[in-house]
Amino acid sequence: MILAKIHVTLKKSVLDPQGVAISEALHSMGYPHVESARLGKYLELRLDDRGRSKNELQAQVKDMCERLLANTVIEHYEFELQAIPS
Amino acid sequence: MRFSVLTFPGSNCDHDCWHALKNVLRQKVDLVWHKEARLPQGTDCVVVPGGFSYGDYLRCGAIARFSPVMAAVRAHAGRGGLVIGICNGFQILTESGLLPGALLRNRSLKFLCETVHLRVENASTPFSRLARGGRVLAVPIAHGEGNYTCDAETLRHLEDRGQVVFRYCEEDGAVTPRANPNGSLENIAGIVNQAGNVLGMMPHPERVCETEMGGTDGRLIFESMLDALTAKG
Amino acid sequence: MPITPKVVKEHGLTAGEYRNILKILGRKPTYTELGIFSVMWSEHCSYKTSKPLLKGFPTRGPQVLQGPGENAGVVDIGGGFGVCFKIESHNHPSAIEPYQGAATGVGGILRDVFTMGARPIACLDSLRFGDPKDPHVRNLIKGVVAGIGGYGNCVGIPTVAGETVFDDVYRENCLVNAMAVGLLRADRIARGTASGLGNPIIYIGSTTGRDGIHGATFASVELSEQSGERRSAVQVADPFMEKLLLEATLELVASGLLVGIQDMGAAGLTSSSVEMAFRGGAGAEIDVSLVPKRESGMAPYEVMLSESQERMLLVARKGKEKGVLKILEKWGLHAAVVGRVTGDGRHKVFEGGRLVSSIPVKPLADDHHPLFPRAHRPEKRPAYLAKTRAFKLRSVPEPKDYGEAFWKLWSGPNLAGKGWIWRQYDHMVRTNTLVLPGSDAALLRVKENGSAIALAVDGNGRYCYLDPFVGGMIAVAEAARNVAMSGARPLACTDCLNFGNPEDPEIMWQFHQAVKGMAEAAQALGTPVVSGNVSLYNESPRRAVDPTPVVGVLGLLKPVQGRLRWASQWFQRGGDAVYLAGETREELGGSEYLARLHGLKAGQPPALDLRREKALQEFVIRAVGRGLLASAHDLADGGLLAALAESCVRGARRGSPALGARVALAGSIRMDALLFGESQSRALLSCRPGDSAALESLARRLRVPLKRLGEVGGSSLRVEASAPGRQVRLDLPVSEVENVHDKAFPSLMGEESL
After folding, report:
1. Is pLDDT above 90 for C43?
2. Strand partners, A40
3. C309, C399, C584, C657: most buried, per Cβ within 10 A?
4. Which range of residues forms the domain containing residue A78?
5. Largest Cα–Cα separation, chain A
6. What band does C231 get if pLDDT is binned at 50, 70 and 90?
7. What is the pLDDT of residues C548-562, one digit of tens each?
8. E-state strands within C244-310
């Protein structure tokens, strides 16, 4: 079994209003050294890797991100694959 | 004229669009379930209504774009057919790539329902041809993610080609930061595609088609479409 | 798990109740059985404290199609249509996790309405919080409002009206009451009943998890420091699932394939299956191994007590399962046949082949059964009343500067405009909202029969604290009055009774008195109580909330010659005549003025004469119906001066500039009572000058005191008032009145400067 851990965040060029609100809240709580905060999504997919190579899975997850999991107009994604016991 | 109003799981303005078109504007209207692979024969215009398709889970409009009916909508648009996406419909159209850009969370991080003013920036589209350029319309918004954004190059194209159809403005037509309810880029409230036959807008014209609903400025948009379709024959 | 006295106590059961369990079963209960008894006999499900008292409510009338006892009440609105409505609390869950607590509250009340076969057309909310400047309270407000909006907006039901009141007594215990309203065909009311031997019991909606176990028992205890740790008891809302359930349910009801349908609300699968079997005079068998679960290894006890949201239980006609499943499949809903209706009058739970619980249905659900729990709670007149009633108005100095007094009241949280709240709610979806939030009542057109319905929700905890009987009467009268102001005739009401711990005799006295007052007013005004909810134990170790009965009223506006005529609270035209209907007495007890300007919660609330109240409402309804009125506004918090200012500011639709007014007031009472007193049964009206004579003659005929105060117009609200020994002239610029109205609340929330 393979665990795909995917992080989706807004691109640096896109204003993240939730991130701004979070850093402001942290400032008011006494953490003035928080320079910025960005909020994103974390997804976990469990993939059955029987009969599929790691490269194949890699390409598939990339495809899933491009087509559905991230909107590449505004979002940036990265992921890693990790073997887990089934 | 014949309208197809799409219904996705989670659509909730489909009946409002149906009511405005059918009972107020006296047109033929079909509600089309998202699993249909084809639009009803003779569809002149597709309405992608507001709501929370698939609960807006993952991203607004992200899942709806994969519904079977969207392939038919794409083909309809490709043939030059009219498509109007309202609110969640606008989000679905950007996610589908039928319109450029994307819609982010409102700058205030709050859902906002109120009447806003829209300045008609381009009065030559099939959706605005009955308006004079610069005319101000009062139309309600109701959304949490209507903050339009796109990259600088796309914005330049939109502006150069007159693809920005509506901008948030003051009552007198002045486009100011104060009149911008959600932080959208350049106060953009609605855009068309390059060919001019696909419109996306955050405000809800179907909510202001009858006097007792507080105004009839929304009718101007639907009547423009009827006018354009009639002219086309 | 062995059933020890400690385990019994932890389940909230008294020793006497446990003895009854032994009698009913003739043996010791299993752990699952103990769990079932504990939730069914909890205050939340059994109403063991409140039921005997609630029997005083009028519940019948020619307009009532369904009274209390079902998921929600139904009232006839003509043309073959009925309106189904109910209000419910979600106070404790909201205090712990405001967003999810409030959202699931809306979800639950919506399900109560659409399980009756009604399409939800509106939501209302009634909220109570502490001081919004307090950061803890601010977070609660933000979360609750976002949660109510997040749910209703997603499902596509407009939230059209409500009320929000701030008082320190609600700091630890906020009140979150949600009301839902639906439209149905009068001949197609669905009910929560299980009958027909062998009919399948079908489970639909979300999967079952460990969330919310003992939510019903939890709602029946006080909040304590440890409550934060019971977060696992909080359920998470899934409005998308709700929208699918709604559409599927309405399609199922229309299909005629169902015998009964019920929401799995408090006490989940247990209460829904027990109550359906009880109403159908049948028994039921449930096999928990067939229930769709989201966690592994769940014990039968957990499955039966889970309060996972967005689940429903259906009883289908035998042999029609396929048709039911086909409709569910269209909406992408999973369904499972989890049991069947039996004829032995017992509620049985199996886990596969193993019987884990077998209890006769009646003692679980029938409040007439001799072994059903009854809490006879002692009552005692509260000691604090001696002090609050000793209050003398002459001990309070009048304000030196009435302008300053007005601005202080006007910018306070209770009078501040609540646009910050209702703009977060989609109040227009479904395109029926004729009068938007902000007026006394919302008005919705009913496209199906050409009429309109008016909706309002109201309650005054301060009045009830000072005199629960009068406060209870006023809650009903004021909600009905709000509805009447739009021109609609009040038809029926729903109530949510929010009180402290009933084991405290003083609280029990408050409860009893308030219920008596409400019953009297509902009877006199012809608005039977068709549904409702009781929320007790609203207290922290520090204090109980003020007794806060909240009343929702539904009114009907019929078309006159095919046209709907209605009014809102806002002045319409310069030159219109301004009138005050009703009588102003020297009544400041329990007023917003005393509370905000003098820090006092004292005196007697204003007196209410139900005959005069009825006459006033009749007068306004007829005047609106004859097209005589341009605006009609109930006088409430802040009295006459606040009402004048509220009629000057513009509502949500702002086509034209705000209107001022010029009025002259004279009275033989103190100036502060004249301007800020809260005498009941009054209304501020405006009409075209040409309609004055007809209006005055109608008032004379109905014996309603009517005084012309002045006229609408100008850019300021100008008031000349004279009272014994005091003259006051105020010139309040309308732009400033409106600006403060709009910005005071965002400013209190720390978001915008005033």
Report:
1. no
2. A9
3. C309
4. 2-83
5. 53
6. very low
7. 999 999 999 999 888
8. 258-263, 283-287
Of the candidates C90, C92, C427, C741, the residue annotated as catalytic is C90
Structure-block tokens of residue C183: 């439209």
CA nearest to C119, candidates B103, B12, A37, B129: B12
pLDDT computed for residue C230 by the predictor: 43
Q: Name which of A27-31, C578-582, C732-736 the model is least confident about.
A: A27-31
The CA angle C522-C440-C599, to the nearest 5 degrees, is 90
Cβ pair A17:B150 closer than 8 A? no
Indicate the SS3 state at residue C6: helix
The per-residue pLDDT for range C470-491, each reduced to its tens digit, is 999 999 999 999 999 999 999 9
Asked if B95's CB is within 8 angstroms of A10's CB, the reply is: no
Based on the structure, what is the number of domains in chain A? 1
Q: Which residues of A touch B66 (CB under 8 A)?
A: 68
Dig out the tokens for C649 from the structure. 């500011």
Q: Compute the CA torsion angle C190, C192, C196, C197 (nearest 10 deg).
A: 160
Per the listing, tokens 């301060």 go with: C462
Handedness of CA B209, B210, B214, B216 (dihedral sign): positive
**Residue with the larger pLDDT of the pair C662 and B233:** C662
Digit-coded pLDDT (tens) for C502-540 = 999 999 999 999 999 999 999 999 999 999 999 999 998
B87 assigned to active site: yes
Contacts of C248 (CB under 8 A, 6+ apart): C204, C327, C328, C330, C331, C333
Contact between chains at B105 and A18 (C-beta distance less than 8 A): yes
C754 Cβ partners below 8 Å, 6+ apart? Answer: C411, C740, C743, C744, C747
Pairing of strands C489-498, C529-535: parallel
Residue C224 has pLDDT above 70, yes or no: no
In single-letter form, the type of residue at position B63 comes to: I
- Considering the candidates B87, B150, B169, B209, report the single residue annotated as catalytic: B87
* Chain B CB contacts of C154 below 8 Å: 10, 12, 52, 55-56
| Interface confidence (ipTM) of the complex | 0.97
Residue C84: Cβ-neighbour burial (10 angstroms; 0-12, 13-18, 19+) = buried
CA nearest neighbour of B199 among B116, B119, B98, B97: B98
CATH of residue B21's domain is 3.40.50.880
Its domain, for residue B189, covers 2-232
Q: Closest Cα partner for C77 from C24, C139, C121, C30?
A: C121
Of the candidates B55, B138, B142, the beta carbon closest to that of C428 is on B142
What sign has the CA pseudo-torsion A80, A81, A83, A84?
positive
Q: Report how many domains make up chain B.
A: 1
Residue of B nearest to A10 (CA): B104
What's the gap in Å between the CA of B52 and the closest CA on chain C? 6
Do residue C431 and residue B144 have CB atoms under 8 angstroms apart?
A: no
Mean predicted confidence (pLDDT) in A59-71: 95
- The active-site residue out of B76, B121, B204, B209 is B204
Q: Is the Cβ pair C447, B19 closer than 8 Å?
A: yes
In this predicted structure, what is the pLDDT of residue C294? Answer: 87
For residue A33, give the CATH number of its domain.
3.30.1280.10
Query: DSSP states of chain B as a string?
Result: -EEEEEE-TTB-SHHHHHHIIIIIS--EEEEEETT-SSPPTT--EEEE--B-GGGG-SSTTTTGGGSHHHHHHHHHHHTT-EEEEETHHHHHHHHTTSSSSEEEPPTTSS-EEEEEEEEES-TTSTTTTTSPTT-EEEEEEEES--EEE--HHHHHHHHHTT-EEEEEE-TTS---GGG-SS--GGGEEEEE-TTS-EEEESS-GGGSSBGGGTB-HHHHHHHHHHHHHHHH-
Give mean pLDDT, residues B213-230. Answer: 96
Clarify whether C44 is annotated catalytic: yes
Among chain B residues, the shortest Cα distance to A69 is held by B58
- In whole angstroms, give the CA distance from residue C128 to residue C169: 9
Please say if C11 is a catalytic residue. no
